[in-house]
Sequence to fold (223 residues):
Amino acid sequence: MNKSVMVIAPHPDDESLGCGGTLFKHRSEGDDIHWCVVTDMQQSSNYTSEQKAQRAELVEKVSNHFDFSSERNLGFTPAGLDSTTTGALIEKLKEYMDFVKPHTVYIPYAFDVHSDHRYVFDAVVSVSKSFRAPYIKKVACYETLSETDFGLSPINTQFQPNLFVDISHFSEQKKAVLSLYQSEFDAHPFPRSFDAVEALEIIRGTQAHVERAEAFVVLKEIA
Fold:
């Protein structure tokens, strides 16, 4: 039976880094895939009008590559979720989730170093309570290069995946989308580089005994 799948990205590129191959795999299996971007560069005064126009064009290209069934930008300020009320974030997330009614939701990890990621995690966990969103049967956290791996803590909060998705046949499609975000990448050994993306896919693939994989921490799964 085909499923409705939603990826929630604090910023454009998180969806592709964290679960781009998995999204392409879902689509190949006939699932509907939906893209929720939480923050919008248009709301920030830190960018020029030219940068904002370029970002809008980029987001459209990414959407076309994935062929999302729907997409929505919640319009919050990047790197500003700590000054947003939790209620406002929850309200907008809930509105889109009620519209899509996703079976599966992919979200950032709770202990990522970027505060936007942590606020999004907390809001989604609240919204996805079974009595609030009974249609959600699975919630899983993806890992984001330069955010998840730099979430250092004196307590054991490191990303420890319990789900591996074989993306061996979808790695090139993922790479094609990530190439659209060229300005966000730098040469190795920069943590967010194409070499690092490939290396992580291979490491996760080795753990799952496949060529390439993406890894997740499953928070909830209702059979």
